[in-house]
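Quick note —
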Amino acid sequence: MTSAVPQVIAWLVAAAGASPLLGSSPTAPVQVIDGPSVTGDELAAPLHLWVGCSDPQESDVSAAGATQVWPVLDHGRTRQESGEVWLTADAWSGGTGMGVVRAQCAAIVAGVEVLLRGLPRDGGPGDMTMGGLVWQSAVDGPFTWSQRQASDGAGCSCSFRVAYQTRLLTAT
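Predicted structure written out below.
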């Protein structure tokens, strides 16, 4: 495997979409979007989570990054990868109150945090190994918060990253 980035993004999209705190929430579903928007049709929903997108307002955005260390002891058969995937949470309403959308945006970020807390075998609410894909992962900063007032109401967004560490194995 050259890098775990594509699999990590795919896991985050699937897990967020299936989460009862996010995509499958019965009371306030969050629209989970893989990468930057193509048409903008999804913006009719008030709550969004872009995975692999540092700024949904731009067309060319940072999605993820990774660095690798090459171990010598195993004759180069494995590499250790430290990576990050950028996400953006966004909430808007038809009103002018910033506190409401700020709280909704914070709840989306918290929902992603819960996805990565603990281990299933220990009864944790989430899975820091992303189903065994990585050693560990967590929501991490920097957190960039933005607020806006527009003719259609107040909005708040938070760009943040999910950091992970894993070992890449050479197929034999």
